[in-house]
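Thread: Putative multisubunit sodium/proton antiporter, structure

OP (GT): Posting the sequence first so everyone is looking at the same thing. Length is 85 residues per the record. Can we get the structure tokens written out before standup tomorrow? I want them in the notebook alongside the other entries.
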Amino acid sequence: MIVVFVIAGVCLVAAAFFATFRLIAGPDSLDRLVSMDTLIGVSISGIALWAAFSGNTTVAPAIVALALISFVGSVAIARFRVQDK
């Protein structure tokens, strides 16, 4: 079972690396918004992976709160976004 957790962790690190690259090099503000959402999703997945590995379920409310804040922030930014030049 440890192998599954290690493989999942490596995949999450790779996803975070590519999302960070898109956040830095994104030609558009919407590209940066999508990469930020991806980074938040990866961090939520990392917290959930750690909770599954350790058997600690006390972080479940934090996962839900982070997902809700991420959704509301993404909708607000997409709604009031200024057009790129």
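GT: Both are above now. Quick notes for whoever picks this up: The mean pLDDT is 90. The chain has one domain: 2-79.
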